[in-house]
UniProtKB/TrEMBL annotation:
PROSITE patterns: PAL_HISTIDASE. It comes from the Bacteria. Its EC number is 4.3.1.3. Its main location: cytoplasm. Gene3D superfamilies: Fumarase/aspartase (Central domain), Fumarase/aspartase (N-terminal domain). The lineage of its organism: Bacteria, Bacillati, Actinomycetota, Actinomycetes, Propionibacteriales. It is found in: Cytoplasm. CDD domains: PAL-HAL. It holds the Pfam family Lyase_aromatic. One of its GO terms (biological process) is L-histidine catabolic process to glutamate and formate. The gene is hutH. Pathway: Amino-acid degradation; L-histidine degradation into L-glutamate; N-formimidoyl-L-glutamate from L-histidine: step 1/3. Keywords: Histidine metabolism, Lyase. This is Histidine ammonia-lyase.
Amino acid sequence: MDVVRLGIGPLTPAEVVAVARDGVRVEVTDECLDAVGATRRHVEALAAAERPVYGVSTGFGALATKHIPVERRAQLQLSLIRSHAAGSGPEVEREVVRALMLLRLSTLCTARTGVRPIVVQTYAAALNAGITPIVREYGSLGCSGDLAPLAHCALALLGEGEVRDASGAVRPAGEALAAAGIDPLTLAEKEGLALINGTDGMLGMLVLACHDFGRLLTASDVVAAMSVEALLGTDHVLAPDLVGMRPQPGQQAAAANMRLALADSPIVASHRDDPHCPIVQDAYSLRCAPQVAGAGRDTLDHARRIAGHELASAIDNPVVTPDGRVESNGNFHGAPVGYVLDFLAIAAADLASISERRTDRMLDVKRSNGLPPFLADDPGVDSGHMILQYTQAGIVAELKRLAAPASVDSIPSSAMQEDHVSLGWHAGRKLRRSLDGLARVLACEALSAARSIDLRGLGSAPATAAVVAALREGVAGPGPDRFLSPEIEATVEFVKSGRLVAAAERVTGPLA
């Protein structure tokens, strides 16, 4: 993808990821700029009229009853941005800020916000120049828009505040704009409000999370298949006729992935028809792997639908209708986005929980079906992967806390004018931590499963063997205890980068 064009329809999730993470350029169509200009003329007509219009000739929030004279309206917009750029805390990740900026720009391009074309052009130019405003962790309640995060971005367009330039260096915004050949904006009526009134921050985090969670779900199926081999489990429970008795689509996809990953596995076949095998049925963490991962997939599908609807939205307050009315509305409320951000955190926590249980079985000599205690080379002298499971357990405990929903909370603001808020931004922030934790838990399971397969010495399925071989390029096999943390981090990168799934897919073909 070389360029993302705005003004020809809703953005796709892939386009958001490309601009946010890969720095793909944006291009605003001439048709879009013409439509934006036409809408702006309605705002200018209303600004000249006697009747007060919210956001054009009045104050904001609880101050909406105060009429602002014509000569003070430019100051009104500037004051709005300066006062609302009130974030605090750690700096938000560059990819989140770029996603937020792209989504606000996309809404401006709907021609429903009433800004001038120069606002659209300046926003696009800053994004293309790699100028990333410094946005702080706290400041959004997920209602009336992601106010503080968006205000920090708007402030940078005015040449104020701090940004990171394309090289990542922190610079004054005015200096960075000048270096990029961009003139700072001077805001006119309604434009300050249009720059900060949207769900862009929480939506950007949702789109990125959907992309990441989808990749981790596929990885979890491959890793679960490795654990089935590691624990001398069976693939009988993955049979299409059995999983088909419960037609949950996510479950079908997860089971199909596991079947492909386990195809032609000598380690599974070694005890499949053994009448003396003492294992009557596998533990839930193996037997129910596709059910749990499948529920995560179905949750993700729902989240993707909500994200798609939001990407097609024009969110501002007030909004300029096609017939020229400027109307207040409540579309900025983040409840739809906040709910699914919280829902995904629940799914991520449960997927990590079942992964940790499989790892624990591999390490327990009473439940591992013949593996050495803790997969140690010389148990007693060596501790093997004992503390790796502690790391997993600590992460899973954290993910369970992060699964507590943010969207059920609300703290009134603006002198009770804004008396119910979504806290969707908070849901997005904790989901990002949840998905990072899930990747780490899956990496630990993959590390233990690979060691278990090696220790069995019975061979493994072509797909899982390919995964173990790819992992062994950066992480050594079984042996005496060694510094384990670097191996865990290398495996985390192996999972997050997609290389684990890619290794399996070289054998299986594309996995769901």
